[in-house]
Amino acid sequence: MPNPQSVNELIIITGMSGAGKTLAIQSFEDLGFYCIDNLPPALLPTFLNLMKQSKKEISRIAAVMDLRGGDFFSSLIDALDRIEREDLVATKILFLDADDETLVRRYKETRRSHPLAENGLPLMGIKYERELLAEVKERAQFIYNTSSMKPRELRQRIIAQFSDVDSRTFTVNVMSFGFKHGMPIDADLVFDVRFLPNPYYVESLRSKTGLDEDVSSYVLKYDETKALIEKLMDLFEYMIPLYQKEGKTQLVIAFGCTGGQHRSVTLAEYFGNHLDQFAPTVITHRDIAKRKG
């Protein structure tokens, strides 16, 4: 059956060309929004009706609407009026702006031409675009001037403004690996645990892995391991909230030993099962199946 409550929030991202709409839609995607780039405004009411009839659980939508949508400015006003009149969904407009000098500089840096600059001069196109966008800007609930914003700052502001406090979009991926198979290229933090006592040299443990209790007990019983765990837990307790505040959606922590079988697996399992107090945690053992023979 249709789910009439499936869509309850729509964010329309619009504003000046070159003000940061691409980065904005990427940030909304990281927040879990269903994102659409270059949706023609005239199709917006129809699209919302289709979403409401869909069986998919889509509650939050973000859509970029700009000059690429054709007859943009007049049709967007008409679409907003219809959405409000038919009470289709709670709609908010995020308008991205920047001063003329900044926009001109950005166009020169990217060597792109302004879509409204018929004579090739970006400033003329910018001024004309401001006139056309005036009514949309007046209706916007959020206006960000990105002139002095770095990309990271724009991302942080969007996350702070639009994140769902009840959703946990930040995850921690704890992985083990073997140095002889190469360093993981996707890790944010890498810890070399080859200084810990190696179960490989215990004949009864050599053919096992850190997933076996006797191997993990062997690794965890040493004072060196206990001290490492204590220090790293303090570090992670300090760092993880800061990564979340920075706007990251994932933190990859990698533990490496020689072959990726014993020590690294033990530590990855331990921290994977203890860091879930800070964020949803996934445990991955990259090289555990690469044992020779």
What does this structure look like?
The protein has helices spanning 21-30, 44-53, 72-86, 100-110, 122-139, 151-162, 203-206, 213-220, 223-246, 263-274; strands spanning 9-15, 34-37, 60-64, 91-97, 142-145, 171-178, 189-192, 250-257, 281-285. It is 42% helix and 18% strand. Residues 1-5 have low confidence and may be disordered. The strands form two sheets. Strands 2-3-1-4-5 form a five-stranded parallel beta sheet, sandwiched between helices. It has a four-stranded parallel beta sheet with strand order 7-8-6-9, covered by helices on one side. The chain has 293 residues and is an alpha/beta fold.
Task: Identify the notable features of this structure and list them briefly.
293 residues, alpha/beta, 5-stranded parallel sheet, 4-stranded parallel sheet, 10 helices, 42% helix, elongated, disordered N terminus
Task: Summarize this structure briefly.
By secondary structure, this protein is α/β, with parallel strands linked by helices. The chain has helices spanning 21-30, 44-53, 72-86, 100-110, 122-139, 151-162, 203-206, 213-220, 223-246, 263-274; strands at 9-15, 34-37, 60-64, 91-97, 142-145, 171-178, 189-192, 250-257, 281-285. The N and C termini lie far apart (54 Å).
Helix run count: 10
Number of strands: 9
Largest sheet, in brief, is: 5 strands, parallel
Rg for CA atoms: 26 Å
Q: What distance lies between the first and last C-alpha atoms, to the nearest angstrom? A: 54 Å
- Given as residue ranges, the uncertain stretches (5+ residues, pLDDT < 50) are 1-5
* Strand order across the largest sheet: 2-3-1-4-5
- Average pLDDT, rounded to a whole number, is 84
Overall shape:
elongated
Quote the beta fraction: 15-25%
Structural class per helix/strand content?
alpha/beta
- List SSEs in N-to-C order: EHEHEHEHHEHEEHHHEHE
Percent helix: 40-55%
